[in-house]
Amino acid sequence: MVLKVFFPSCCSSAESGILIGRWISGQNSAVILAVVHFPFIPVQVKQYLSEVQRVTKVSVSVLGSWSNSKQEKEESLSEFLEDLGTIFSHEPWIQISKEGNSKFWSCSTLQKHSNNPKEEEIILVYYDQRKVMLSHLHPPLDTATSADHEADDASKLSAIFDTVAKSKILFMTDRYDDGPIKLTHWQSDGVEASIIVELMKQASVPACMLLTFLLSLISGICRSRVLKFWPLSFLWSKLSTCEQLGHRLQHLQVISSNKKAQTQTQLMRKANIFVSLLIDVALGILLMSWLYRKNRIGHLADTLIPVADHVAEELQDLLQWLMGAPAGLKMNRALDQVLGRFFLYHIHLWISYIHLMSPFIEMILWYVGLSACLGLTVALCILSDIIALLTFHIYCFYVYGARLYCLKIYGLSSLWRLFRGKKWNVLRQRVDSCSYDLDQLFIGTLLFTILLFLLPTTALYYLVFTLLRLLVVIVQGLIHLLVDLIDSLPLYSIILRLCRSYRLAAGVKFRVLEQQDGKPLRLLMQINPLSYGSVVQTYRLPTYSCYPKDSWTSLCKKLFLGELIYPWKHKGEKQD
């Protein structure tokens, strides 16, 4: 049977002593965690290991002896190392020795209490203790299609990674301490960096407490009955700016919570939210500084009114074209004139409203620009709401045309069933047979003829205003895609994957160092990092979605039947 010994590469130059680690009997593997140097008192070593085992819940014990000598190994030292196996009774007792500058190590096992001792093949696997301790091994994303042996290998690796990760308290004592036990592990060069981190944690406690108090106050105001009245509740649910502010408020509550993250996923989620907020606010401040430099707010306000007038003039020219003979089509003149004048009157009202608001537009834009300090996503949501308000007349035209077209489509479908002697059963939600008298057939034929000849005029207006509405929807959709990208992108995980790829481990690979007959096989365990796509898929943050997601088939069906394709409805609500 093959015995696998996982040896930390940082202990290769350690002085002679005993090996401390965990024995995984199910895998016939030994995970070495540290080397205790001579001299030491065995009773103190046992007390120390029992304390480590009580805190970490890891069965840490003395697994064997380690000999590092630049000269020929003395016989007395060899006998002393073998006698340690009687004090620390562990089966098998592992003996690893490094002689001089030789690149080949000798490794053997002693089984004193075994009746039939067998010669075991030993594989020495070197691993970077710091990287393994700080890394998080991710299971395969597609566990349903992965083979059983791959899942078994992942569980074996997980046991090794968990052993090193849970033994952090063991690394708090090193060879420079004044205690009776001298250890060698990855942190033997000092713990100054961890002290700085602890000081930063202590300094952040008052800031988190203050932020938690302010957020609880804001949340109490948002949940008050004042905001539940109809006008305020309607604006809060329909404006994307309010939705984004509520989304960011939840993020701030997660960050400022004094509840410690229990798992690696929760810790990464907090870190991703914090970095996302930080970058979002930084980009917003940069946008705000650009807007208030060189009076760009005034130039934008001066440009907005002429652009709105130009759009209104283009719509008037389009309506005049539709009221004539568009593309040589012969329309119903009476209905064409009624619809054209109806829409021209709305455009006149819109132009009057814009000119009435023109003295206040610069002041409104000045205060709106200040909201960029809350983040670039808030500024983009405000831009989306401004576009929705500025194109509200186009939305009204689209709704009028869609409702009129939908009424005629459903009227024609009902009258077509009348010709076939059928009707729609509302209670059973199906088409049943029905007998009609002569008067009903005459009225149905008359109405069908009227609706059929008026349909081209209505369909043309519906087609034009639907195209205009789709143009506005595409612009707003691109803005919301950018907002969702900033909100959901796990920036901290991506930066961690770029700078310290070993922190996000997908698996390991082994590289052969040396192999010689009579000597143990020496392998180097290296960490395979997660791919960038897997990082985004694993740690992507949830986002809010104001609009339902329709398939292309459903979208084309709604366009043909005249149903509203992009109403102000929230996800989960029933559509028209």
TrEMBL record:
The chain crosses the membrane at residues 203-222, 273-292, 338-357, 364-391, 397-419, 440-464, 470-495. This is Phosphatidylinositol N-acetylglucosaminyltransferase subunit Q. Keywords: Glycosyltransferase, Membrane, Transferase, Transmembrane, Transmembrane helix. One of its GO terms (cellular component) is endoplasmic reticulum. One of its GO terms (biological process) is GPI anchor biosynthetic process. InterPro entries: PigQ/GPI1 (IPR007720). GO terms for molecular function: glycosyltransferase activity. The lineage of its organism: Eukaryota, Metazoa, Chordata, Craniata, Vertebrata. The gene is Pigq. Coiled coil: none annotated.
